[in-house]
Specification:
By secondary structure, the chain is of the alpha/beta class. Among the domains are: about 10-125, Response regulator (Rossmann fold, 3-Layer(aba) Sandwich); about 145-300, Reverse transcriptase/Diguanylate cyclase domain (Alpha-Beta Plaits, 2-Layer Sandwich); about 405-615, Alpha-Beta Complex (Spore Coat Polysaccharide Biosynthesis Protein SpsA, Chain A), CATH 3.90.550. Helices cover about 50% and strands about 15% of the residues. It starts with 11 loop residues before the first strand and ends in a 13-residue tail after the last helix.
Length: about 775
Amino acid sequence: MDDKNGLHVAPLLLIGFGSEMVIDLIPPLEAAGYAVKLGTPADLASGQWRLVISAPAIPGLGGMELLAALHAPGLVSPPGLLVVGTVWQLASAGATADAIGAQWLTWPFEPQALIQSVQAMLRDPTPRLAPSLEPVAPLPEPLLALLNEDRFLELVAEERDEQRAGRSPGESFVVALRLDEFERYRERLAPGSRKGLWRQVVELVELDALADQKVAQGESGDLLLLWPSSSRRQAARQLQAISSRIATHYFELQGQSMQFSPVIGYSSVPRSADAAEALGHAREALSQARLRLDLQPTLYRSRPTAKPGSGRPAREPSVLTAFLGRLRQKNALLIQYVFTMVLGLVIPFLVYWGLGSVGFDISSGVYIFVVVYLVLTTLGIWAEGFLALKRVDPPGEPATPYPPATAIIAAYLPNEAPIIEDTIRAFLRVQYPGHLQIILAYNTPHFMPEIEERLMQIAREHPRFVPMRVRKSTSKAQNVNAALPYATGEFMAVFDADHEPDPDSFRRAWRWLSHGADVVQGHCFIRNGAASWVARMVAVEFEQIYAVNHPGRARLHGFGIFGGSNGYWRSGLLRELRMHGFMLTEDIDSSMRAVVRGRRIVSDLYLVSRELAPETLSALTQQRLRWAQGWLQVSMRWIIPALRSRSLSVRQKLGMMYLLALREAYPWVSMQILPLIAYWAVEAGSLSRINWVIPLFVVTTLFTLSTGPGQILFVYKLADPQIKKHTSWFWFFVVVSILFYAGLKNAWGRIAHLKEALGETTWVVTTRTKT
C-alpha cells in the first residue's frame, strides 16, 4: 500500500508516551493511513520498523542515551527516529538527540505538522549527523513569566489592596509548591538543570492558568503562585488538578526520566495582614502537606486566638464535677451504646405511638419497608455466597516477564516491635523471579536503638531490604506515601506489619496485573486463632470476609475492594491516588477512588497472607469501631460521586448503593422490628393478642434467619485448610454469633455513627501480640 506521495506505508512504533500525548499522535497517523503500534524498545527486534516515534525519555528506563542504543549495529535496518516532546523536554535531551541524528517535533503540534514530519523521514530515513538540528515547530513563548520572590511579593501586595477595596472579584490565594523528592539532590544539580525542571513544572501549571496569575521562583527552593479564583472550592479543585498532573508526569532531569510528589500549601490573600504573612501562611500549610504526601493541597487555617482576659487562671472544678467527668470518660462507650439504643428503639416507638394516637398510623408502611430491606439484604448475602463458590484463577502465565516489584510494610514500631523481625524474615523468603524490593516504612515516637540497629543489620545482610523511619508520621497512610518515591517496582504490594505472605504470592499477583487488573486483593488468613476465644472467633470471621464476601461481592457487583493489606497495585496508580491520612479507613477510600475512575480491582481467594487477630474483646472493639466509622466516612464521601461516575455501569452503581447506602443503614433498620412489635402490643393490649402467624412475617423471618447458617456453610466450604481443620471453631462461631456477636457488630456500627456525628476521629492502634 502506498500513500498519496508514493511512499510505502510502513508500520510506525511509538515508545514512551503518556496518555496526554498518545491521544494527539495516534488519530492523525491512523487517519493518514499509517499502521501504529504502542510498544517498548524490546519490540524493535520483533519487526521491521521504518520509523520510531519516541518521547525524549522512556518512563522508568532512563534518558536519550537509551534511545541511542537502539541504533546499535546489530539491527539489520536501523529505523529513523522522530523525538516528540515539550520544549523543555527537548531542550534537556537536545545534546543526545543531536549526537544520534534524531529529528525533533515539539508538542503540542498541529496534526499536519506531525504528518509532514513523518512523510519527510520516510522519504529520507538516513539519520542527519549535523551538529545542530532545528525543531520542526518553533519554540513557543511560555505563558507565565518566572519572577523572583521580591517582585512576587509586590504583586501580592497589590492584589491584596485590590481585593480589600472590592475592585477584584472572588478571592486570591498565595500558593507554595515543592517537589518533595527533588530536595534530596537539589544542591548537586547544575543551576541550568534546576531551572529547566521548574520550567517543566510551569508548563504543567499554565494549562490551568489565566492571564492574571503569576509565578515566581521562591528563595526557599519552592515555586510560588499568585492564584486568583472565584471561590475556595474552585481554587481547591484547580490546585488538586495541578497536583495530580504533576504527580503522574515524567520530568526530564539531566537526561533521566523521573517522577516527583508535589506538595502544595496555599493561603488567602485578603485574609492576611500583608503579602509576607500570606506567603508565610502558604509555606506553613505546605509544611503540613509534606507530612502527609497524599497529593492533597492544604489550605492554611488560622489557629483560634485567646479571648481578652482568657489568661486568667481557670477555676478549679468542684469535686462533684471532676468525679462526673472521670466517670463519663471511663464509661464513654457504655454511655454511647445506651444513647444509640434510645435513638434506635425508644424514639421510633414514641413516633409510632404519637402518630397513631392522632389517627396517623405509619407502622404498616414502616413494616413493609423493613421487610423489603431485610429481604434485599438477605438476597445479596446469599448471592455473594453462591458466586464465591466458583473458583477463579489468574491466567496460567503472565502476559509479560516478571518485572521488579516492591513490598511496602507499614509499621508503628513500639506497638509492632515484638513481631517485626519475623515479618521481615517472611518477606525475605518470598520466591519471586524478578527483583523484589522490601521497604519497611515505620514511625516511632522515640528512638528504639535495639530494634532499629537489628533492622539495619538485616539491611546490610540483604540489600533489597530498606528500613525507613518516617519522621513526624502519625498514620499508616503517611508511612505508605513516604515510601512511594523510593519504590522501584513496576507493581507494589501494601502490607500491615503483622503479615506473612505465601512464597508465591507476588508471582500470582503479577499474573493478574499483567493481564489487565489494576489492583489485586488477596486472602488475609488469621494465624493466631488458638491464642484466645476472640482470636478464634475472628479467624472464622475473616474466612467469611475474604473467602466469601470479597470474592462474591466482586462477581456480583462488578468491582472489588482493597482491604488495606495483602493488596497489589500497579505502581503508577498507587502513586497517583496515594493514601489519605484524614480518612480512618484510608484503604477503602483509595478503593473507591480507583473504582470510580473505572479501574479494575479483583479479589483472589488463593493469594494468601497470614496475619494476627486481636486477642482481647477490648482490642477488637477499638479496631471495629475504627473500621465502622471509616466505612461511614467513605460512604458519605463517595456515594454521590459513584452514582454520577461515567466510568461505572448500572450494575456497578447498584452495587455501590448496596455497599455504601444499604449496608450503612442496616444496624438501624434491622432493629426497627422491635419498636414496631412494642407499638402493636400497646395497641392490641398485650403481646399475646398480636397475630404472629402472618405469612409475610413468618416467611421473611425464616428467610432472614437462614443467612447465618447459610454463611457458615459457604465459609466452611471455602475456608483455608489451616482453618478448616478446626471444625469446632465453626460451631463456636455459630453459637457466639447467635448469642451476642451479630448484635455486637450492629452496636459497633451505631456507635461509630454517633462518634462521627460528635467529631470523634481518634485513631486507636490495634494491639499486636507475638504468638
